[in-house]
Amino acid sequence: MALRLVHFNNTIGRHVAPKTVERVAEARLPTETGEFRIMGFRSLISAEEFVVLVKGELSADRPSPVRIHSQCMTGDVFGSIRCDCGRQLDAAMKLIEKEGHGAIVYQQQEGRGIGIINKIRAYALQDQGADTIEANERLGFEADMRCYEQCAEILLELGLRAVRVMSDNPAKIRALRQAGLEVVERVRLEIEPHDFFAGYLKTKKEKMGHMCSVA
Ligand SMILES: [Zn+2]
Predict the structure, then answer these.
(1) Catalytic residue check, 90
(2) pTM of the predicted structure, to 2 decimals
(3) pLDDT digits (tens, 9 = 90+) for 14-36
């Protein structure tokens, strides 16, 4: 008997992926930068949790500035200058505040997914001369273990269909496009350069394809 493959026509014209995240909490968050809403999302397929900052009305008709920010405790909380994460987060919040609308998905995958303790171990190796990629690999991890599909899903869940991305990371931009979001612009965040993290940015550009400008 010949195997007959039946193809269904998708009359909606758009693949609807199963939902893998849900919004579980929401509150006001007044900050030094301005007034935001903070939301908690939970993954339905893992133990991962996401924190989202939202400003203004988000709609399918207006491309809002968005950022997928990967948690960096050292940079975001302590103002570390080993990397530019804290400055990027700050600049993204300021831009959203200025424009009056936008969202930041704060993804809690510390140290490109290896966790804070291993990140400190990686810093120790960097103190001995390894770059950020070599350090991760020497600890037995891939250079980057993060994935962004659910962050993109959260932006869709918030009602966005087109976005202006605040990121230098091509993997993040790819994830947004693959999820069906239209990336209408890549917004450059103005980050004051610092000698200490110039080497880190150079590694990200040369080894991970990031689009940041390196002096
Ligand atoms: Zn960082």
Answers:
(1) no
(2) 0.84
(3) 556 789 999 999 999 999 999 99
Query: Does residue 38 sit in helix, strand or coil?
Result: strand
Contact 20, 48 (CB under 8 A): no
User: Hey, what are 62's tokens?
Assistant: 């207006």
The active-site residue out of 76, 84, 144, 168 is 144
- Cα of 151 vs centre of ligand 1, distance in Å, is 18
Annotation says 146 is catalytic: yes
Question: Which 3 state secondary structure label does DSSP give 127?
Answer: helix
Q: Where are the CATH 3.40.50.10990 domain residues in the chain?
A: 39-70+85-108+146-208
Superfamily of domain 39-70+85-108+146-208: GTP cyclohydrolase II (3.40.50.10990)
Going from the Cα of 72 to the center of ligand 1, the distance in angstroms, rounded, reads 5
